[in-house]
Amino acid sequence: MSENVTAGREFDYHGPALDNVFDTYKQLREQCPVGKSEKHGGFWYVTKSEDIFAAEQDPDTFAVAPSMLMPAFGTDMPLIPIDIDPPDHTDYRKVLLPLFTPKAIAKLGDGMRRTSRELAQEVAGQEVVDASHLFARPMPTIIFSRLAGFPEKDWPKFDRWVDDIIYERTDNPERAWNAGREVIEYFDDLLTSRADEEPADDLIGVLQQAEIQGRKLTHDELLSYCYLLFLAGLDTTAWAIRSSLWYLAQNPEAQRVLRENPDEIPTAAEEFLRTLSPVQGMARTCKKDTELSGQKIKAGDRLVLVFGAGNRDPEVYDDPDEIQIDRQNNRHLAFGGGIHRCLGSNLGRQELVVALEEFLEVVPEFSLADPSEPWHGVGPLTLRIGK
Ligand code: HEM
């Protein structure tokens, strides 16, 4: 059997499979850009930017139901709005729009900066430190939990739930489902207690007052929104911050440039999102027989839009595997690209930029203390601070 066929059949986009995944992406894109993997019950992987954008633009053929999460996120309830297809998707998505406009996100700016600075100061005072635990993870947890109205006393529970649901679901599905149940119970209680209070000016308050197709949202719909936003809002941004620091820790020159020119941090942040994308792929289900890059795909087949591979497609980017912190015209797929394009992209971007600004301002030159720690995920990132 040829090497590329084996690579394709065994292709995965989770966990340790990501360690050297960029070589695999190159091989697949060159030799078999749309092919079949046997993992997770079997799926077609789609690795070229053009094909991914085309599939994103055609939700009638490439549906999200039963779920774009493969394997499931510790529950089989459809998550709103990510697992909802047209026509209902538009109404469900609309409910969340006021929370994520650039203006709404700008209002969070001062608190975000203060929190980042305080967390960065804890890192700066140490010699060897886990910057994921002390900085990359708590920053988005605090910012999003305040926006959402998740009580501060509960925040310490969140990391384990995220780890079990997102990172254990491939090797340890039972653990993911148990954590999923705990999260459902948690939001069940929170929503019930909030139902008797005056609606507050936060995510839960907005959802409780929202109307869809002339009616209020049901308790199960509220639960589904909370469950998805909890997972979408914490893990992705933590990954983006951690992976950016992972890169910078190995590149003192990039640290120097960004410290001296903080106005270049937003451009660098886009490049980190492109090359070290927190969401490497999302699933779809084919609703009718079709073709992508000459490959026939049948109705009912599952496929995965591999954003991480599309983001390094040489047909779109010069030297695609090179991280160029000043790369311009960087139209990438880190937030998707169709009707399900990330609703939290303004928030995620701003959190990443502010986190990097404050970290570089407060923390002196840093390097990797444990080079065996991978580029991906939200696990430890051990840094040595100071030269
Ligand atoms: C750097 C951080 C983030 C990245 C890289 C990211 C990435 C993504 C991706 C790839 C999708 C799926 C797009 C598709 O399949 O076309 C998505 C959807 C979504 N994201 Fe994010 N995300 C981030 C942060 C956030 C945050 C902070 C929130 C909210 C708190 C959020 C909320 C959502 C929602 C609600 C959807 C579903 C939108 C829909 O189905 O219409 N994301 N995100």
UniProtKB/TrEMBL annotation:
Keyword Cytoplasm set for record: yes
Keyword Iron on entry: yes
One Pfam family per UniProt: p450
GO molecular function: heme binding; iron ion binding; monooxygenase activity; oxidoreductase activity, acting on paired donors, with incorporation or reduction of molecular oxygen
Keywords assigned by UniProt, alphabetized: Cytoplasm, Heme, Iron, Metal-binding, Monooxygenase, Oxidoreductase
PROSITE patterns given in the database record: CYTOCHROME_P450
Any Gene Ontology CC annotation: cytoplasm
Protein's cellular compartments: Cytoplasm
InterPro entries cross-referenced by the UniProt entry: Cyt_P450 (IPR001128), Cyt_P450_B (IPR002397), Cyt_P450_CS (IPR017972), Cyt_P450_sf (IPR036396)
Family: Belongs to the cytochrome P450 family.
Protein name: Cytochrome P450
Organism: Saccharopolyspora spinosa
Taxonomic lineage from the root: Bacteria, Bacillati, Actinomycetota, Actinomycetes, Pseudonocardiales
